[in-house]
Amino acid sequence: MTRQEKYRQVIDWFSATMPDAGTELQFQNPFQLLVAVILSAQCTDKRVNIVTPALFEAFPTPEVMAASEPQAVYPYIRSVSYPNAKARHLVEMARVLTERYGGQVPQTMEELLSLPGVGRKTASVMLICAFDKPAMPVDTHVFRVSNRIGLTRNSKSPEETEKILMANFPEELLPLAHHWLILHGRYVCQARRPLCGQCGLSGCCDYFKQGK
């Protein structure tokens, strides 16, 4: 099977089974999404969605958060991973948004990467989820699933995976493709015990064919 044929099978299957895939984070505007994505690093979306309603009520805008201190944010996010560092990043991010961008979340990779607490994956999530721009965020799920299926072959880094996926998925499908892979990794192609018997991609999956 050629790489093009494999991608076509993957696209066809996900299009049929997961046509409306999207982020599981709950948000109402780009600022809220940015806060939620920063909190989601090494933390589940379920946990983030538990803490953000009260957090957004207390800090509804970048300006309000920028005028606070990390110790004021901490109680709202204490149950997420690394709450001290994330509280500091959120306040610093809000201050940069307010001072440099007029309280508006920027819409380019370069500008997003200038924000405290924002790495390439977070910036890519913002591009596809908030601004409908082409990007391919690569987290542990996307990295693992892509290698297992054979969309990438022994990719050594998230950056390498990102380049390969962006080169092979049609640009207009990139937002969907990211969510296809991440949700498949969370619920089917799990790290320790992949549920291959429940997966409709076994016919084109390198991992399944190798009997691992």
- Please identify which CATH superfamily of the largest domain we are dealing with: Hypothetical protein, domain 2
- How many beta-strand runs? 0
When the domains are counted, the total is: 2
Molecular shape: elongated
Q: What is the CATH third-level topology name of the largest domain?
A: Endonuclease III, domain 1
- Report the major sheet: none
Run of helices and strands: HHHHHHHHHHHH
Which CATH class of the largest domain is shown? Mainly Alpha
Spatial extent as radius of gyration: 18 Å
What do these coordinates show?
- This protein is mostly helical and 212 residues long.
- It folds into two domains: 94 residues, Endonuclease Iii, domain 2, CATH 1.10.1670.10; 100 residues, Endonuclease III, domain 1 (Orthogonal Bundle), CATH 1.10.340.
- Helices cover 59% and strands 0% of the residues.
- It contains twelve helices and no strands.
- Helix 2 runs antiparallel to helix 8 and helix 9 crosses helix 11.
- The two termini are 19 Å apart.
What attributes characterize this protein structure?
mainly alpha; Endonuclease Iii, domain 2; Endonuclease III, domain 1; 2 domains; 12 helices; elongated
Task: Write a short abstract of this structure.
With 212 residues, the protein is an all-alpha fold. It is built from twelve helices and no strands.
